[in-house]
Amino acid sequence: MEALADGRGMPYGRLGRPLWRLLALSSGAHTNMTAPSLALPPAAPQPVMPRLSVLVRHAAPRVLEGMILPVAVFYAGLLVAGMNGGLIMAVGWVYGGAALRLVRRESVPGTVLLAMLAVTVRAALALVTGDVVIYFLQPTLGVFCASLAFLGTAAAPRPLIQRVTTDLVPLPEHLMHHPRMRRFFVHLSLLWGFVQMANGTLSLWLLFSESIETYLIVRTAAVAVLMVLAAGASLLAFQRVLRTLGKQS
């Protein structure tokens, strides 16, 4: 008995359709069912390091307001009206900055409020005791505290330097647990811990061995150079880590 065949010589199936057409339909159905399961999930966006110019524009006003101008204001007052004049001008600078924010209808940050309290207490103690060293001693001790905080949290699950870094550059959570990123934050904690230790040691030595004028000039210049070098090394290392992780993902 001859098998039924279509015009192409292909045998028919039970449903009266050519077998080649049934195979094509079943193949298409199988492809439609499996195609969604084979689709790859969308790739997670890679973290992007902000440009150096953006970071500089972000940090420069804060460095100018928090480090350079207070020293310049105090030094100007010291030259014009002596120690008391320098203390009064330094306090007036901090309070003036807060008043300017209120005039502009801006909120006064909590850090500024703490700075106002700290500078008031420091200036009052210096005026009462007549020793300007007390005014500069508290910030120097604060630098040592920051150094110990960086070094002490280097091996912690979330080091302090990691929180500072993610405030500037938001990073995906899965990258934070990568072993290479973890090693980076340990090394960064050690770097800034020792940098701040050198900062505090230099400041303390200048404060007790040199005049206030020398302390202000030498310490400000030396610390600025030290911070720029440490920040540059940190940025280069951070960019290298991000490039390496981007190639691995």
Main features:
globular, disordered N terminus, about 0% strand, mainly alpha
Write up this protein:
The protein is mainly α and 249 residues long. Helix content is 78%, strand content 0%. The protein is globular, with a radius of gyration of 33 Å. The protein has helices at 19-38, 52-103, 110-129, 133-152, 160-168, 173-176, 179-209, 212-248. Helix 7 (179-209) runs antiparallel to helix 8.
What does the largest sheet look like?
A: none
Distance between the termini: 63 Å
Structural class: mainly alpha
**Percent range for helical residues?**
over 70%
Q: Which residues sit in consecutive blocks of at least 5 with pLDDT less than 50? A: 1-6, 22-27, 29-38
Rg for CA atoms: 33 Å
- Shape verdict: globular
Draw up the topology in text.
Layout (H helix, E strand, L loop, with lengths): L18 H20 L13 H52 L6 H20 L3 H20 L7 H9 L4 H4 L2 H31 L2 H37 L1
Helix pairs in contact: 2-3, 2-8, 3-4, 4-7, 7-8
Tell me briefly what this model is.
The chain is an all-alpha fold and 249 residues long. The chain has 8 helices and no strands. Helix 2 (52-103) packs across helix 3 and helix 2 (52-103) packs across helix 8 (212-248).
